[in-house]
Specification:
Oligomer: single chain
Order of helices and strands: HEEEHEEHHHEEHHHHH
Largest sheet: 5 strands, antiparallel
CATH architecture of the largest domain: Orthogonal Bundle
Strand content: 15-25%
Bound molecules: adenosine-5'-diphosphate, magnesium ion
Helix content: 25-40%
Low-confidence stretches: none
Shape: globular
Distance between the termini: 52 Å
Number of helices: 10
Radius of gyration: 19 Å
CATH class of the largest domain: Mainly Alpha
CATH superfamily of the largest domain: Transferase(Phosphotransferase) domain 1
Length: 281
């Protein structure tokens, strides 16, 4: 695969007969395309394994992630998606959601000369999207600003590849949860990953991750204190120890975000309580 420009697997070309396509993300182990076809506009996710390098162990699970997300979408009763296998791993297709993500939408709030307070109705949209998943008995496991797409018809929470709780996954497509982006990782998840290499995604950890997402998007500051260039394990240690930065979002939204970022999971509000409090602001 290396060398030549990435291409959509033939099985996806056959399924969608694209009239236009654009590679939107090409990260280690995962590619995402925006694909236009006569059936509509789709996001196509294609996974392949990450081979070991000098400073990175092999990660075979990235090949399975799109199919695992497909199985989650199936369990959730979502419409208009498909998933399957290709030569190097698995793929899925799902409706394309138009709009900026939370981090991009709140960019004006982060400017040093900004007087724009973060819009609590945008926060409420994110809360509702996560509440919808929690109400069905799932934890998302990978809540982060890039996963909330704020579109004209509401807010969508994407990337369900790590979600858990609503039933067994097909064995061939399942893999253990090894934590998420450290900036959004709850202390109890960080501690478990440091101790065992794995953790259990929970709704409480999702609430923390949403609090961290709102804080970072509104202020540009991470929840915890650690250097930008620190190795991941050092960052995780700081999160596990709860080395909190003294940063707050202005106004009543700030107090609510603080409670979502409580160290102990049992001290955090549920997503439904957050929604209720936000609708009263
Ligand atoms: N359904 C979708 N609609 C619009 N954009 C999407 C969609 N799915 C993925 N994307 C875009 O692709 C990026 C990566 O997708 P994501 O689902 O997070 O996969 P991964 O984390 O495996 O790269 C997202 O941040 C978003 O910009
Ligand atoms: Mg993602």
């Amino acid at each position: 695969m290396s060398g030549s420009p990435p291409e959509l697997p033939i099985v996806v070309l056959d399924a969608l007969m694209p009239t236009a396509q654009r590679l939107v993300a090409d990260r280690r182990g995962s590619m995402v395309w925006e694909v236009e076809s006569c059936r509509g506009r789709y996001a196509v996710k294609v996974g392949h394994p990450i081979e070991a390098t000098a400073d990175w162990p092999a990660q075979p699970w990235t090949a399975l992630a799109p199919a695992r997300e497909g199985a989650v979408m199936y369990r959730l009763g979502r419409a208009d998606f498909a998933y399957g296998e290709w030569e190097h791993g698995t793929w899925n297709l799902q409706p394309w959601h138009e709009g900026p993500d939370l981090h991009r939408l709140w960019e004006p709030c982060r400017r040093s000369d900004s007087s724009a307070p973060p819009d609590s109705s945008v926060a409420l949209g994110c809360v509702m999207a996560l509440a919808d998943l929690h109400a069905k008995g799932w934890a998302h496991g990978d809540v982060q600003p890039a996963h909330f797409i704020i579109g004209p018809d509401g807010t969508q929470l994407i990337d369900l590849a790590l979600a858990r709780g609503g039933g067994q996954m097909p064995k061939g497509y399942d893999f253990p949860f090894r934590g998420c982006l450290v900036h959004y990782e709850a202390p109890e998840i960080a501690r478990s990953v440091l101790a065992t290499g794995e953790a259990e995604p929970t709704q409480e950890a999702d609430v923390y991750a949403l609090g961290a997402s709102l804080l970072i998007s509104a202020t540009g500051w991470r929840v915890m204190e650690y250097p930008d260039d620190a190795p991941r394990s050092v960052q995780r240690e700081a999160v596990a120890k709860g080395r909190r930065r003294p940063v707050k979002v202005p106004g009543e939204l700030g107090g609510l975000i603080d409670s979502m970022l409580s160290q102990a999971p049992e001290d955090r509000p549920t997503i439904f309580e957050v929604g209720k409090a936000l609708s009263c602001l």
